[in-house]
């Protein structure tokens, strides 16, 4: 047996033969979406009136996922100038998440659609949570300190009267908690 015949026989037996090139172009029919980054924000971490983190930097197309700890929290979109009030009729609102212990069985997700700042707050207890500093921002403009999260929290502390909430869950998705054992 010639050495070239032995080589062909061994490579064929070992499955090492590659197909000969063809002039056909490969056209896959399967498509896949690029994975998105999900940013987790915890409402009420450690029993405190906070969002953790309260300042999120997220790319367009990212998901911000709110997890809820005891006792009862929500997340509502606001504007910088009017903290503790819905931004407008289309503002996102998670609904209230009453949690006795542990964390909620559901989370609330929103998609970041542009690079403008997205201000948010907890509407629980007629603004007591918001006024106590339970506010946050996605994509704060760090070049404009007059519109910082610190300044927003100062405005929220001055709000009097009940907070506004939307009529129902809107502007995002309330889904089963994808990480129920996360220990938040």
From TrEMBL:
Signal peptide: 1-19
Official protein name in the record: Extracellular serine-rich protein
Entry keyword Signal: yes
Region: Disordered, residue numbers: 160-184
Source taxonomy: Eukaryota, Fungi, Dikarya, Ascomycota, Pezizomycotina
TM region positions: none
PANTHER family cross-referenced by the UniProt entry: EXTRACELLULAR SERINE-RICH PROTEIN, SERINE-RICH PROTEIN, PUTATIVE-RELATED-RELATED
Keywords, alphabetical: Signal
InterPro entries tied to this protein: Cupredoxin, Ser-rich/MCO-related
UniProt xrefs under SUPFAM superfamilies: Cupredoxins
């Amino acid at each position: 047996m010639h050495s070239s015949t032995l080589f062909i026989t061994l490579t064929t037996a070992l499955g090492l033969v590659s197909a000969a090139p063809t002039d056909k172009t490969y056209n896959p029919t399967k498509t896949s979406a690029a994975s998105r980054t999900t940013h987790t924000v915890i409402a009420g971490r450690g029993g405190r009136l906070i969002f953790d983190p309260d300042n999120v930097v997220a790319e367009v197309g990212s998901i911000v996922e709110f997890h809820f700890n005891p006792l009862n929290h929500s997340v509502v979109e606001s504007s910088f100038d009017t903290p503790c009030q819905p931004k407008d009729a289309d503002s996102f609102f998670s609904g209230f998440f009453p949690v006795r212990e542990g964390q909620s069985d559901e989370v609330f997700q929103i998609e970041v659609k542009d690079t403008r700042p997205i201000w948010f707050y907890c509407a629980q207890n007629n603004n007591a949570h918001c006024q106590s500093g339970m506010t946050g921002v996605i994509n704060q403009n760090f070049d404009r300190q007059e519109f910082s999260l610190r300044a927003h929290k100062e405005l929220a502390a001055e709000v009097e009267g009940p907070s506004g909430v939307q009529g129902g869950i809107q502007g995002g998705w309330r889904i089963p908690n994808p990480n129920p054992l996360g220990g938040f």
